Amino acid sequence: MKNISRRGFGKAALATGITIMVSGKAAAQRRYDVVVIGGGFGGATAAKYLRKFEPKLSVALIEQNRVFHTCPFSNLVIGGLRPLNAIAHNYLALSKRWGIDVIHQRAGRLNPSARTVRLADGPEIGFEKAIVSPGVDFDFQAIEGYGRPAMRTMPHAWKAGPQTRELRDQLREMEDGGLVIIAPPMDPFRCPPGPYERASMIAHYLKTRKPRSKILILDPKTTFSKEALFKQAWERLYPGMIEHLNAADDGRVVRVDPDRLEVETAFGARYRGAVVNIIPPQFAGVIAGNAGLANEDGWCPVNPVTFESRMARDIHIIGDAAIAGAMPKSGFSANSQGKIAALNVAAALTGRDPVAGSFANTCYSILAPDYGISVAKVYRTTDDGIVGVEGSGGLSPMDADAGFRAAEAHYAQGWYEAVTADMFT
């Protein structure tokens, strides 16, 4: 491990009380023990826990955005239950409290063999090890007509922030009686229950403000996460408002016309919406693919113990981009993986043996202000990879009463506050 003195730099940053922003010139002169790329649920957690596990490590976090908007609870913003700033978080505590160099630039090119990452403005930063948490990018070739320009009229809102606001505002501007079309992607994708929570939150908004409106879900899959629980809730809360067409019902969208807000399915059915939410198929963030870390399916194979890439040494990949066995692509999964990856990266840099971790995932979905459902599971690392622990977790019961559903909605808020505090404080 190569230790670099950073005491004076750290004191100056603490005195100013601002996120450490390393200039291009300074960055070009630095080589860190660990560089973390991406400041979401996986990357922010990993950066913090690297310093928590081994305070002597020099750690840089490269994240182009100064404010991170969480995808969890973004559907509540769309549904009018929370303002956008309620899901906004900054990186001040990671720099001030934990001494992490937070570099607010885009990571341009990762070179695993040279162990460098080039920033968007040109300079390179060196590292002994890297933890890459790039999230997802979108396959704009999968649906004819849905390129980047189409996002202005048909926002996906699958990366929270400006697109969340755009979709919310379109719903506000829509006339009562309009049709909202939601087109989820094929598996795998970020947050499997997310499109159906979104449909629920939009239905809540419409029920209370534009009750003559309808929602049509055009789904390319035959089934989806927590399906029975969602459909039970839709019948109870929003009868006649939500129609769901799956693959057997010609639910796969193959073509869109952004100007006419029209979609076409595989067998030629056409639907025109007042608001159209297309969620494209996904793959690992492009920086991972460009660095040769993804397989032919677009996702990143990793060692299930250390999360080290199977394509390159000293590069560890976590979160949505990683192939993590039975674990779903969720914020809580990424948070859990970030801790184990940090533990094992710190161990490798200090001469300790790797540790096979246990993981947890809990996914709450809020379907109305007082109606929540969940799925939970514990995972462990075996010779077969990361697998679910038999008998752990499970789904919310189908026969739960109103009090139980209200309690789960309350627990969801507690979960959100806890996990974001774990990441950013």
Automatic annotation (TrEMBL):
Residues 32-146 form the FAD/NAD(P)-binding domain. Keywords: FAD, Flavoprotein. This is Cytochrome C. InterPro entries: FAD/NAD-bd_sf, FAD/NAD-binding_dom, FAD/NAD-linked_Rdtase_dimer_sf, FCSD_central, FlavoCytC_S_DH_flav-bd, FlavoCytC_S_DH_flav-bd_sf, SQRD, TAT_signal. One of its GO terms (molecular function) is oxidoreductase activity. Pfam families: FCSD-flav_bind, FCSD_central, Pyr_redox_2. Residues 164-280 form the Sulfide dehydrogenase [flavocytochrome c] flavoprotein chain central domain. The keyword Flavoprotein applies.
